[in-house]
Amino acid sequence: IQPGGYAVVGAAAFSGAVTHTISTSVIVFELTGQISHIIPVMIAVLIANAAAQWLQPSIYDSIIQIKKLPYLPEISSKHTHLYNKYVKDIMRRDIIFCSYESTCRQIQQMLQTTDYRSFPIVDNEQNMTFLGSIR
Question: Measuring CA to CA, which residue among 82, 124, 127 is closest to residue 102?
């Protein structure tokens, strides 16, 4: 029993708890080269990670919140029905577009009859391969 082994296990557990990552155990293995500490380090990191996730956000999430940066919150189980929408449910199918075959008259009519700000450009009406958009 070496005191340095306990220190390494404790440091790995602390780092894993603060960052909420398990990869700290791999970093510890590579830094120390002590494969004999795999089981204690992995167990300590897993337990510390589980306890820290239950108690507080990670250091990265905390920094994001302190700096008021855009943050994606976790999806809770009571709101998952909101995430079951598909693009086909909300997309428009009557698209007004320009192609290589569009004439000046068609483009002028398109600009006068719609209030869109951007129009897709496709190669032709059969393929409908998107090439870009114009404003």
Answer: 124
